[in-house]
Design brief:
The chain is built from seven helices and no strands. It is mostly helical.
């Protein structure tokens, strides 16, 4: 395996080649550190420090040049519905039936493709006991 050059702490990644080199270096560091048992949680050593530095530089490059969209966060209301079904051992099909809508509509609501109607919001409150303020804030 060829030796991948180290990236200077102050060096800003401005080309795809630099980014790819940094990525290769991180992979190399992870492999070496894992083999030596130097990548355990809460460890602070030359491996973890260099991985952190390169990761930060790579993230800055991605923000500036790659236009990577941030991960979409789940609505607290959707998370609450999912938590209810999980806690009650229910599948989506059963949840849709409980809430009085077909599976397709329910799937669209859960994925954010369909808005929550007032009758559905009322059923969330009455059938699942979801707080009305949560429904109002995120429906």
């Amino acid at each position: 395996m060829h030796k991948i050059r180290r990236i200077n702490k102050m060096e800003k990644l401005t080309t795809r080649k630099q980014y790819d080199d940094a990525k290769d270096r991180v992979e190399q560091l992870i492999t070496e550190a894992t083999q030596k048992g130097m990548l355990e949680p809460d460890m602070d050593n030359s491996y973890t420090q260099e991985i952190a530095l390169l990761s930060k530089q790579m993230a800055l490059y991605e923000d500036e040049y790659l236009n990577i969209l941030p991960l979409r966060q789940k609505s607290p209301l959707i998370a609450c519905i999912e938590d209810y079904f999980y806690a009650h051992g229910m599948k989506r099909k059963e949840g849709a039936k409980l809430l009085g809508i077909n599976e397709s509509q329910f799937s669209q609501i859960m994925s954010g493709q369909r808005s929550i109607s007032m009758p559905f919001a009322k059923r969330l409150r009455s059938k699942l006991g979801i707080d009305a303020n949560l429904i109002l804030d995120y429906a």
